Amino acid sequence: MGFVKPNTLLYYSGAYGGLGVAAFFVISGFVIPLSLERSGYRVSSFGRFLLRRFVRLDPPYLVAIAASLALAGYYARVTHTPLAFSTTQILLHIGYLNVFFSYPWINPVFWTLAVEVQYYILMGLAFPSLKKPKLFWLVLAPGCVALAVMIPASGYIFRYFPLFLYGIAAFHRQEGVLGTRSFLLIIFCVCCSAVIALGLASAVAGLVTVLCIAFVRFAPRALSRLGAISYSLYLIHGPIGFTIASVLVRRIPEIPMFVTILLSLAACLVAALILYRAIELPSRRLAARVKY
What we know:
Helices cover 72% and strands 0% of the residues. The chain is mainly α. It starts with 8 loop residues before the first helix and ends in a 5-residue tail after the last helix.
């Protein structure tokens, strides 16, 4: 947020929040193949797999689009600035297509969902290759790493292949395909490739995440509950948090900044809980009815 002064404790407390995206991709790299394996997925069910993912994810996403537009309209009105969204730009969000037509996202975090959808498509088609670990790790994984280096565009999946490979390695270890030594060797190699493609910070964030997936066997109840609403929170934390904070800074400037941030965080959590219970949870239940 532009109204947080740089080089302060408050600034540094959130300066590296973007590394959560790395953790997000690693977790997805683990969870999606694990879900496919446990559900008996076959490529012949590719259409139903995509249907299940879209039924699960799209309703909260569409609500987040509407909320982002509404809050952007409110901000434009109170600041007397034009609302700079075109109809084409908005409609492209429905298919996660903005990146392919060089239109900016209404909510900056939506680009990660587009990368996720690209991963779903690739995983749905290439899942049988995970059944052949030698082929995958000796041929396909190095090819993915090469693409990560050669195609560094941020809106496409290629650059983030090392993060998804972290998760796939954890999946193979979970399923007994990789022993601990092989797993550690693979994630070391993946980490090196992630440093080249994404930088040291993202590589380390991904490494910490995959090690937690592989070796940590406890989760505090509070974190588990927060994890349940994490998708809804991720979708709306930007527009809700920015709007609340900007209103407080403009209308009540005497409030200490840390109080403003805490109030914004509280508003984000409340909004996420409402979105989760009203939209996301019913969507999850509906998606569970789509069988392979």
